Amino acid sequence: MRDEHVDFQQIYEEYRPRLEQVEQILKERARSNQAELTSAGEQLLEAGGKRIRPLFALICGTVGENVSDDVAKIAAALEMTHMATLVHDDVIDQAALRRGRPTVRSAFGNLAAMYTGDYLFARAIQLLAEVDNQEVHRAMANGIVKMCQGEIEQIQDFYNWSQGFKTYFRRIQRKTALLIALSCGLGALVGGGRNEEVHALRRFGYYTGMAFQVIDDVLDFTGSAEVVGKPVGGDLRQGNITLPALLALRNPGLAKRLQELVHPAMSAREATEAIDLIVGSGALGEAKRVADWYIAKALLALQAVSRVSVRQQLTTLTLFLADRTF
Amino acid sequence: MTDSKEAMFRRVERKALTHMHHGYLTIRNVRQAVSRFHFDAGYAILSAAAVKDDEVEQVLTALLLLEQGLSIHDDVDRCQSSDQGLIVLAGDYDSSKYYYILAGVGDSALMFSLCEAVVQINEAKMALLLSTAPLSTNEYMRLMKVVEGQLLKALACHYLGEDGQWMLHIDSLVQAYIVQDELRAHRFSKRLTTRQASEWLSHSLEQLEMVAGGALTNPLYSFLVEYFGPIRETVRDLQLAEGKG
């Protein structure tokens, strides 16, 4: 674990100049003629995050022979799209804080958050329009439509205990895995990867994204509120039934009680009891094994990639994400 | 108004509504519509540029999806908190479909221009929303013209070039649309006086009347004439109300 952590840091160090290039693009494009929009954009940029999507795009962009600045543009556009969805998500979730900082909606109001998200999304597409490759647009557009469908389906399935695993997996595919798959696939495409490598890296990104979201859903039950930045069991409190809850539901002794406890008017006491039942059911370990299965599939997909450095860096990054605690 | 224009509107409207459709949004009564004004103005611009029907259909469907995606977000604080999430997502879904259609058209320059328009629209909306001092009526109109007209200007700029005359007339058209909308919504007591509305509409009409006679056969100018017909009546009514009749 310690060695992997060092490796992970080494990858960040190696890509620091290119990540800084992406950061520079983000700063320039988020800057607006309107002071509050600039301030809202900077607030989102400063809240940071791991910049996982840009890093995946940059690594995959080294798979071929092309050394192209377009990879950095694509990486920035993907991150900007992600930022746009976050600022709108905070309105949907009525969130006051993100990573311990006030959200755009709590600083400026819901409408300002809507305009900020729409502004950032336009900037992201504009950035992509500078990349002369129609395949980039087709893939990105297809992915964004599905992401939006996934977000709508998430609300549709709130408090829905009759949803199956298939529904859950389709939802997280759309909500999370697609954007990571796009980061890898588009990075490889613009970086001049062979067709089979582009497809393999897209698959790699998809499986890694699935694992990433499953782990996120496990951490929602185990992470400390201070570190994760939201209350333990926040998803369940909101009515979002994730994999650990669905796995716990398979236990006939728990199913009836869970369904009684989790409903739109659930009290804090009921939520805490439901969370304790899920944590005590062994479902978190099972969910972690599902994430491990996705990680194994991701690493298998990497075998089609010929450049050793890309395989090694993506393997390290994926294993680090699988072991993360926040 | 020609039959082919009406047929095109029906096709574009049906296509746009199909793209906007999501079963759950329908169940939850999230109502969406397309802007007839933006269709008419967009159609006039594309006709003036002699764009082929297939492309007109695609581009106008994308334009109306984008326009609706942006404007439905203005309603986020007007609905119940339980529905806010759906309003957010409905708008995002519309915008994703606009991008999907334009990605199929494959015109990166048009995509770039429309994105720039969206940037300016959101800057104007933020300025309208967060202005600390009361806005003058002229400043209010300037910002509103960006909100309602920038997509049309981007379209005209892309297909007709940056000729100042096109822009001037689209500007007048959008100004008249805003004044009409304000009249319909009875917002004048808050923002504008009837005198100001009357002056603006008269100004728009004067600009139109400056157009050379021959140019009136052009689809964009024909639309302007058609659109301004009822507005002439409104101006007369307003002037009578002001005692200027």
What name does CATH use for the topology of chain A? Farnesyl Diphosphate Synthase
Secondary-structure element sequence of chain B?
HHHHHHHHHH
Helix fraction of chain A, binned, reads over 70%
Mean pLDDT of chain B: 87
Fourth CATH level, the homologous superfamily of chain A:
Farnesyl Diphosphate Synthase
State the shape of chain B: globular
Please list the strands of the largest sheet of chain A in the order they lie side by side. 1-2
Radius of gyration of chain B: 18 Å
**Class by SSE composition of chain A:** mainly alpha
Protein name (chain B): Heptaprenyl diphosphate synthase (HEPPP synthase) subunit 1
Pfam family, one (chain B): HEPPP_synt_1
InterPro entries (chain B): HEPPP_synth_su1
Cofactor (chain A): Mg(2+)
Question: How does this structure look, described?
Answer:
The complex is a heterodimer of chains A (326) and B (245). With 326 residues, chain A is an all-alpha fold. Chain A has one domain (2-322): Farnesyl Diphosphate Synthase, CATH 1.10.600.10. Chain A is 76% helix and 1% strand. Chain A contains 16 helices and two strands. In chain A, a hairpin with a 2-residue loop joins strand 1 and strand 2 (101-102). In chain A, helix 1 (2-30) packs antiparallel against helix 2, helix 1 (2-30) crosses helix 4 (70-92) and helix 8 packs across helix 9 (195-222). Chain B has 245 residues and is an all-alpha fold. In chain B, 77% of the residues lie in helices and 0% in strands. Chain B has helices spanning 3-20, 23-27, 36-48, 53-72, 81-105, 108-130, 137-160, 164-184, 194-209, 219-241. In chain B, helix 3 packs across helix 10 (219-241). The longest helix of chain B has 25 residues, at 81-105. The mean pLDDT of chain B is 87. Chain B: InterPro entries: HEPPP_synth_su1. Chain B: One of its GO terms (biological process) is menaquinone biosynthetic process. Chain B: It comes from Alicyclobacillus hesperidum. Chain B: Pfam families: HEPPP_synt_1 (PF07307). Chain B: This is Heptaprenyl diphosphate synthase (HEPPP synthase) subunit 1.
